[in-house]
Amino acid sequence: MITREVRQHIENALHRQPAVAIIGARQVGKTTLALAIADGRESVYLDLESYEDRNKLHDPILFLSQYENHLIILDEIHRMPALFPTLRGVIDRGRRKGNKTGRFLILGSASFDLLKQSGESLAGRISYIDMTPLTALEVDPAMLQTLWLRGGFPDAFLSDSELNSFLLRKDFIRTYLEREIPQFAPRFPAQTLERLWMMLAHAQGGLLNASKLATNLGISPKTVGIYIDLLVDLLLFRRLKPFHSNTGKRLVKSPKLYIRDSGIVHALLGIRDYQSLMGHPVVGASWEGFVIENLLSVIPAGTHTGFYRTSAGAEIDLVLHLPNNEIWAIEIKSGLTAKPRRGFYQAIEDIRATHAFLIHAGNDRYPVAENIQAISLVEIMNELKAHPANA
Fold first, then answer.
1. What is the rounded distance in angstroms from the CA atom of residue 332 to the CA atom of residue 316?
2. Between the CA of residue 339 and those of 84, 331, 358, 360, what are the distances in Å?
3. Pick from 103, 162, 239, 335: most CB atoms within 10 A?
4. What is the per-residue pLDDT across 141-153, written as a single tens digit (0 to 9) for each?
5. pTM for this predicted structure
6. Domains of the chain and CATH, by start
């Protein structure tokens, strides 16, 4: 099994809180990791998609009271959201008995449902841990190209052939459209959502234009916004907001939209191998989204993120405003070597960046201009991971 960077964060949270929620998209590896954490402990695993396991919780207080000294794993918690008030009582009774931490490991595939329910009833009793697909720090450096092509969902990444990986990702998309989304939004038409996914794949990393999407889909801009909110809440898409700075410049106000997993982008566009990816118009935007997702997996808690663009052409692909008030300006290029765009220099001055990097697809680090370093994805991820704000 690939060692997941997030595991230590989960272990630490279990020593700190009675409940820990692992939030991540379907098939990202939450169950596998939860069972690995439970190995060697007294534990109980309940899959709440299973009728048999849900039936065990017909009287949840009676069932859970039998396992006061066990780690209880509740998988697919959205199936039983009414369980949260019960968990609160069980946790509070356990605290009075001195059983204060490491009681529940809760797995959820959708942020909005889980946060809404647990936010109402488990405040001060739960830690949230985001679990992403595999990142560049979790795979062999020689497999970085494969990770970009296939994406980070473990089954697709570890598949025995490019074709099987591609077909697994196509099945993933179909399952979400026909099975997963109807659980959360039964009135959302799967065919319309599929067309929206395709449009957004072609426009990966572009500015969100709800009116244009609405016209092409034959629906209202408001409905487009509702659909995109759902995809963001299902942890499949990322809405990157503009970085606001008191520069007095006329700034772009629309967010940029990314499909979070590069392998899903490629499956939607019919890209099966690396040669096809290199010849496709999406290659630059695909690499940009891939880099952004990897960087955001290691940024310190409390970091503000966004992109910067003015009407005059000053632009930064990713801005990181760290908790210690450092401002990192990052430009992303898919080539082995690259030089910054002219607008990057102006944008650095606009936001008063303390650090400026150009991430390329090679392995070298070198200066490209005064105070601008070219750097590899893995090296800058390691710098962010080791940053004092991450201590």
1. 9
2. 52, 9, 8, 10
3. 103
4. 999 999 999 999 9
5. 0.93
6. 6-130 (3.40.50.300), 141-390 (1.10.10.10)
